[in-house]
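note to self: dont lose this again. the chain is below, predicted strucutre after it. 504 aa total, dont forget to put it in the shared folder this time
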Amino acid sequence: MHHWVRASSSDFTGTPPQPRSGHTAVNVGKSMVVVFGGLVDKKFLNDIIVYDIENKLWFEPECTGSLSEGKVGPTPRAFHVAITIDCHMFIFGGRSGGKRLGDFWVLDTDIWQWSELTSFGDLPTPRDFSAAAAIGNQKIVLCGGWDGKKWLSDVYVMDTMSLEWMELSVSGSLPPPRCGHTATMVEKRLLVFGGRGGGGPIMGDLWALKGLIDEERETPGWTQLKLPGQAPSARCGHTVTSGGHYLLLFGGHGTGGWLSRYDVYYNDTIILDRVTAQWKRLPISNDEPPPPPRAYHTMTSIGARHLLIGGFDGKSTFGDLWWLVPEDDPIAKRSSVPQIRNPPETKESERELDTRDPQQERGQEGSTIVDLQKKMGISVSSGLLRLQIPEESEDQEFVELGTRLIEGDVVDNRASMIQMAAEALRQHWRESTPETLQLKELGSLLRDYQRLVTRKYTAQGSLASADFGLPGKKTFTFYHIKSSSELRMDDIPKLLEEYKTLLI
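---
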């Protein structure tokens, strides 16, 4: 069990970062977290804020540089990449205003000195919303992004000793071009997840790239991975952070899908278990509310803790800081308190730059199932405290929906009426599509789905192994969800698909 705890002024001294999104935050060894740049209220930033882990201190170092063209360090920017190797933080690309950048900088955190690097070889084109990772302690791999005209799928490797870039020649199938994705080195492979693709769709695919380690002498090649478990929905602007034997994915945004023309922002926490090679929902305590949904934030690991900084939800830029901690952490049971030292969130409802999308889509409002249910006056409490799945006769909402479908039919008694109503409603759902399914039906649909799963697999004596996400087994992803208010927009097609398999 993990807990979300909002950071308070008692957690550290000094001044935390001001509100921002599209910034970077990287670990330098086990001693520091270095935050750079970002965007707030149409203003691009190039400040450095450092968290001294041992002393629990935020500070702004006084950086020096070459003063080339009158500048000490990189120009203000957001949506760049930042990678640390030893005590050096490397910065590439990003956006400043409407301009994509292709410059390359390094900050020596031992002496706080910036240097602009003159690299050579196959230089990457200027881009933003790219993704990068360190290969060992000498090389950097950069993939994808948006150059202002097209989405990219190229891969570059840069040797930080020789400063030579090399475009990787990859054989076989390639992932679709994308931006706003994540790239994470896991042992000898680079894992890429999600992003916004060519033409605008947001993706939820997972790819692995081999051939990055010289000693392995492998031919570079991509493989699409389809792992069991409850995979994240399609999204971009999310984060993936290493947490020991697992990778932790948080937040991001996707499309509202069939219920909304607007984007939806997430605050779910999903892990990729490297031992079992499957997706899992991280168990989170319900004692305190989680951070508001957001994208283009940062998450960094500090021991067993994860630190969340900033982000954007389509309307506001966040200045809050949050800890995600295991239940044995001393602050796990602390009540969340406002962060006194941190500036308030900055409203950007009239913001000119759409940080979510290179094509600057118009829709910026996110909605969740529970938000829509509340707006439409549909009960969202039904089932939240439900410990057992009710029978049809006890499921009043289910019976009422079915009864409307058999109005006018002659029914001898209540038992026959309930049976006919159930058959009519299930036939209705068998013929339904995600587009025709009504929001008010979701609670009843979810409960009937769980009811049918229980009956089918209890009868076979295999409820414990019926899945629930194991390879080679029938997969029933939503069996343990307590209420339809926990569903995401893009869960609905999968729920309906799995439900129909139970009617066969």
